[in-house]
Amino acid sequence: MIKKIQNYLLTHHPIIWNIKLIPMILVLLGIHAIFFTIGFASAQTSFEDLYSYYYSPFNNMEILYLVSVLIGIIALIGWLVFYNRNNGLKIFYPKKTSQIYLEWSLCLIITIGLATIPFSMTEGYLSKWRSIASKSETEKAIATLQRAEVLIPNTDYYRFSYSTEYNKPIPVPEGMNLRPDSIDFDDFSIQYSGSGGLIIRGYTGQSLLFFSSYGYEDYHEYKDKPLEIMKKVYIDSTTWEKHRRQNEVKEWIKNGEKDKILSVMKDFENLQRKHNLVVNITPEKWLERIYIPPFFPVNQETLIKKNQPNSIYDNTYYSDDDIFAVETVDAVSDHQTSSSKKTIPFLQYDELENGYNQISKSHEEDIDIQIFLLICICIATWTSLFIFSFRVTDGKSWLISLVGTGLLLFAILVGTVAILDTLDWGRNDERIFVMLILLFWVALFIGLGIRILTKIIGKKHKGNSKYYINLFIWLIPCQIPLLFFTFALYTELQENYLDISEEMIMNMFWLNILFICLIMWPISVFVRKWKAIAEE
């Protein structure tokens, strides 16, 4: 069937036949499907195998990425062997500009297909994570985990510690008989009375009510402020929402709303069962263990581990005086211990948190993935122009142009480094010098275009222009980036700093790709007229 299609294209659409579009599309579909499957199979999504994966596919598929690039290069070489068997542009150039533009466009489609093979593997990796839970299910699970974190008194004791800046001592209820000689002074705020006695002002030891995510202050100071202020204080609305949920749980604890607390615990247990994790303690036992009013202490009696024992975190040791100095059991699968050891309940919170963070990232528009796709397309665009210039001229001219361009780049690089190291210039002088280098390439592009245009208008023989036109075509995708960074340096010289973000740079390169697609039409006209003049 493919042979019949090729015969039809040879008769009716020779450009499409010569570029081997149909066979290449089938080959590319097969390669992309294979690497998508490889990426899908490479994602280790078992929550129990917590430490076998990283947050990015770029960190644990390096060899596979190398293989995908090599496959793309081999496929490119194979395609070029067939593509360059017939080249009407060398002798009998097309009569229509549309034919030249079409040939480049089809070449661009094929090079994009080849350059995005690694991206397909990445999408396969992320698709595996997305298949575990939908975006709404992931958001709900993360909300449960954020609330449950408050209810897991663990060895991160600093997260449950009293802060003189953001917390107030937990009041001692009326009728509670606490004597100074029967309490640990480190756990209470003590005040000396005028008569020489001691007054217990409140509890300041480790407590669930003092829980705070490390790195951020408590939110109470800002709770009545507009959301815009929240975002400034807490970086983004997602972080603010996490703090809101956790402080909501602390309010439930303080107000004795045990039904809501138990509901969170049951939701957490459902997550563990959903992902076949060990349920070491029931929600009822969990609540009974930690809910100790009025101070809700965090100590040996309430300790619950945040991950399954025998993980890498169990290599952490604590001093004998530490409030959390406990003996870790050797085996907890049967929940039995010897008389000299005490079983410590555990919840696989860390496993769930890391897993759902990965799922959440796979659902988000990760800027690293977007940059990766953009790089692939930029490489494909430049490759298509290199192939196009080779088709326009010939192998010898193309190779001479390539060597000449390489020598020019090397000379400019060495000269720049030498000048910057030798001369004692100020920061602004260096910016001006870099701007001049950037503008040199813009001026070279314009100069080459003018030189080739004079050949066309004067109908002179091609001469050295067969070398110039290669570099002229190669410089097309450089113009907008060169002008963009020149403008950025200029604004800095005017002390009007341009806030260049990753998103701005990405948008500039996307705009550059659109610019190339548009300018290639007049470039096709340019090339067509240049091909019409005599060789000698």
Question: How would you describe this protein?
Answer:
With 536 residues, this protein is mainly α. The chain contains 18 helices and 2 strands. The chain has helices at 2-12, 14-18, 21-42, 62-83, 97-115, 117-130, 135-149, 227-234, 237-255, 258-274, 283-290, 349-363, 367-392, 395-422, 427-458, 465-474, 479-493, 502-532, and strands at 188-192, 198-203. The chain has a two-stranded antiparallel sheet. A hairpin with a 5-residue loop joins strand 1 and strand 2 (198-203). The longest helix has 32 residues, at 427-458. The protein is elongated and about 110 Å long. Mean pLDDT is 81; it is low at 215-227 and 312-341.
The string of secondary-structure elements, in order, is HHHHHHHEEHHHHHHHHHHH
Helix/sheet category: mainly alpha
The radius of gyration over CA amounts to: 34 Å
Distance between the termini: 46 Å
The main sheet comes to: 2 strands, antiparallel
What would the principal axes of the Cα set say about the shape? elongated
Give the helix tally: 18
Q: Which regions contain 5 or more consecutive residues with pLDDT less than 50?
A: 215-227, 312-341
Helix % is 55-70%
Labels describing this entry:
2 strands, 536 residues, mainly alpha
Please sum up the structure shown:
The protein has helices at 2-12, 14-18, 21-42, 62-83, 97-115, 117-130, 135-149, 227-234, 237-255, 258-274, 283-290, 349-363, 367-392, 395-422, 427-458, 465-474, 479-493, 502-532; strands at 188-192, 198-203. With 536 residues, the protein is mostly helical. The protein is elongated and about 110 Å long.
